[in-house]
């Protein structure tokens, strides 16, 4: 868990209306603030209906972790603001989404993928990115064989992500959290990205 004054948690499902609003606001803020870091765009997602946002979150094959400014210690009834997020796609989700993970990686085990990682600029450099990644490690480590009825057989688990080559902050963060570079990617069809992976045995 993130250290005070922050709280880190997975968005519970089924998602509540207030969480839906907080999530869509945060995601749109990330696309608006750092358009060069994402393949999707503010223009595309700003016209999403509530049902589209809901279907993103009410999907058992994904989990989205949030960091909020709410203290995890009492009294904790102050106003909270969501300031960081990261989604992990599980093996079943990845079977339905086209991705160009290097074959030598995807052939080695069950894939999990980090997407939509973002920390609000005023909260960067405080370890929130690391905290989110470690929550992701915990999630992957605890992922149960057959939990989602998706055919997971208990082989090696690999947590992968694709990052633009010029995104040095993010690459340094992932390297610090023991991801290794495993191949070139073509993020957003534009090239200039690298795949990074971490194995779980
Ligand atoms: C990349 C990002 C998520 C990092 O979040 P963060 O909360 O600032 O990261 P942390 O505070 O946990 O930093 C962890 C490590 O990352 C590196 N790092 C992160 N930001 C850095 C910066 N501005 N300058 C130098 N190193 C940085 C450091 O190695 C740091 O280790 P340290 O704490 O020992 O110095 C954040 O900058 C961000 O949201 N960027 C825009 C969106 C983005 O690029 N997403 C990733 C897409 S793949």
TrEMBL record:
Write out the coiled-coil annotation as residue ranges.
none
Q: Which Pfam families match?
A: Acetyltransf_1 (PF00583)
Annotated GO molecular function terms are: acyltransferase activity, transferring groups other than amino-acyl groups
Q: Domain N-acetyltransferase: where?
A: 24-201
Q: What is this protein called?
A: N-acetyltransferase domain-containing protein
Q: Which domain of life is it from?
A: Eukaryota
Write the record's keywords in alphabetical order, separated by commas: Acyltransferase, Transferase
What PANTHER family does the database record attribute to this sequence? ACETYLTRANSFERASE, N-ACETYLTRANSFERASE DOMAIN-CONTAINING PROTEIN
Q: Give yes or no: UniProt keyword Acyltransferase.
A: yes
Gene3D superfamilies with a match to the protein in the record: 3.40.630.30
Q: Which InterPro entries match?
A: Acyl_CoA_acyltransferase (IPR016181), GNAT_dom (IPR000182), YpeA/RimI_acetyltransf (IPR050680)
